[in-house]
Amino acid sequence: MNLGWALTLALSKRAGRTLMVDDMRSYRGVDLLVAGMHVAAMVEAKSSSARVGLLLPTTGAFGAVLYGVMLAGRTAVPLNYLLEQETLEYCIRDSGCDLVIASRKLVEHLGCEPRGARVVYLEDMDFRSVPVPRWPVCSGRDETAVVLYTSGTSGRPKGVMLTHGNLLSNVCQMRDHVGFGVDDRLLGVLPQFHSFGITVLTLLPMLRGCSVVYTARFNGARVAELIAKHGATVYIGIPSMFGGILASKSAKREQFASVRLAISGAEPLPGDIRDRFLERFGIPICEGYGLTETSPVTNVLLPEDNKFGTVGRSVPGVRYRVVDPETGRDLGVDEDGELRISGPNVMKGYLNLPEESAAAFDELGYFRTGDIGRIDPEGFVSITGRLKEMLIVGGENVFPREIEEVLNAHPAVHASGVVGREDPVRGEVPVGFVELEDGESVSDDVLVRWCRERLAGYKVPKHIEIVDALPRNPTGKVLRRELKKRLGEMAKA
Prior knowledge:
4-stranded parallel beta sheet, globular, GMP Synthetase, Chain A, domain 3, 8-stranded mixed beta sheet, alpha/beta, Rossmann fold
């Protein structure tokens, strides 16, 4: 079964049930069915390409358009509206889209209509008329359903091809592992061009029958209000969003009374944020793990596991190898190595990049994550760093995340990033960049002493630079490669 058929059956079964609520309106199953049929008819009339771009904010309308594109048998290409214009248009050209379905308000906010494809605005479509009934176009589980462009570590974004089978598998994996039921109500702030936003905050509610509340722009106080207003049972965010809720003075403990599960993903969760959130709101934040290439979820820690600091056990069907990155030798329990993943949710490959697609998998067919981690005797996975970001200091492996955890625990520090600087004696030495909390002040010498009291000598940053703001990607992850560039500029100066 492909997603077009699966969604048609699921939405028909829950035609009268409200599945999605956003800042403008609510969507029942029948509303999504009708809107999807209108979109499918428009796509067939205006597009001859196999792929269709989506340039939409976080709303229920995104789910309707995604369904419509799949109903027409096309591949959806959700576009990252936070990218600069040139890169956004590169994604349109690279994917071969001849049609982009967009929100006029969003495009007006961006200030420029994307070039390279015909743009059709949702606001210009008439969804009130009765559409011509239709069945989904038949396609196999191995056909590409969605192409998601990753920011990558360097160069142009890469289009990750996720099949109908990949996405259906991951929805089922999340359902079985986390236990999502029809009575669950999710709160979603993550953009739907993000893999988590598509799988867990869009497809899961449509297929499973639980509901989701969207808000297009993150605000800590607003999130707390929406959780209380709608009785949300699951909140999903990234670490900076949990930090934003903590920064809100108006957010109250009682507003989170309905929440049974809070999940953090996209980047490592600082222990300080986890501890403060639990103390203030009584909610343990559970880390998840995954990549765009894995549809995305491979692990979620459950509250009853009580293994905080790990990303939990893998979801059903996911298999791991932990490999020595130098020799390719499989490592044992509690040994740090590159994590490699196999499962029904692992991508088909990268669009238009056959060589990079082949290189992404090892000789046993496992996807090379590029993440360093370990698996304990009970199967709990810990992420300790990135393969390309690992430092070798005097022959010792040093992972930036460990140093960042120590820096972030200082009460004056809001966030940090650590990179390596070449050193004639030790090969590399760690250097820290620190963003302070509003109104706080601390010297770099004090922070170095703080680290020295808590880390082995070779892990202590050689220098700490205090900056106004750390460079981040659209999801809030600190970009170490940009810090590396800044380090080079400092050396030249």
